[in-house]
Design brief:
The chain contains nine helices and four strands. It is an alpha+beta fold and 297 residues long. The chain folds into three domains: 89 residues, Ribosomal Protein S5, domain 2; 37 residues, no CATH class; 137 residues, Butyryl-CoA Dehydrogenase, subunit A, domain 3. The chain has a four-stranded mixed sheet with strand order 1-2-4-3, covered by helices on one side. A hairpin with a 2-residue loop joins strand 1 and strand 2. Helix 5 packs antiparallel against helix 6 and helix 5 packs antiparallel against helix 9. The N and C termini lie close together (10 Å).
Length: 297
Amino acid sequence: MTNSMTGFAAARGEFENWNWSWDIRSVNSRGLDVRMRLPDWIEGLDPALRPLIQSAVARGSVSLSLKVQREEAFDALSIGQAVLDHVLAMLKRIEVEAAGNHNLHLAPTSAAEIMSMRGITDAATIVQDTAPLLEALKKQLPDLLKAFNAMRASEGLALQKVLSGQIDKIDALTEAARAEARNRTEQIEANLRENLSRVLDNSVGADPDRVAQELALIAVKSDITEELDRLRAHVKAARDLLQSTAPVGRKLEFLTQEFNREANTLCSKSQYADLTRIGLDLKHVIDQMREQVQNVE
């Protein structure tokens, strides 16, 4: 079966004096929505990573986060003094404004946080040529996506078992409805004969053949054979989809709509308490199935 749309994976990596960590997670969505939080100083990172995710995931709201740090002593870096002075002045002003005008006491800003601000250290020293770093990141991402999809596949297997059980219930209820429909036949025939006799006894000049045709039409309108046949066909289609390795979430969503349509028609045509009860049980199971299908890729 296809994957679940929910999943999570995390990884760490390093290259020369760089190290990084990233995590990827997803929840259900009508389509594929990829959102990434990436360092903006690595040139070409977004267009390099996005196609890899889009080729590995077909559906879901996917969030990728990447944090990159450079392992280098502060005394090896060149400080941008003008920018540093400006940042420190602004931090001081913010603290004064927060305390004096808004009665807010902000947590102290650490040296590491100040060092991470753009422009504090020499950009040429910090960034350098990011192309090798980009290639290292691209090289590791497929492994992250593989772990991510492994979790989604595990979730998908659990979903498959749940959906398979629900489809089995729909199949059993469909066959129970077929049996009850046969039991209902005698009652319908008796009701038709009684109605025909009542109409003929209380009508003046009514054409008996015309009356019989109208009553026969009522019998045709109450027939549920086609609904039961379509339910059986939908059960087979759903089971086939569960065995597919391709994304089938949208197709299963469509099938649940078709299941529900047939169950509604069955209830409206039943005119028989036991058959109505089966129709309501069908609607209950189908609604449970619809909720589970929302998580299928």
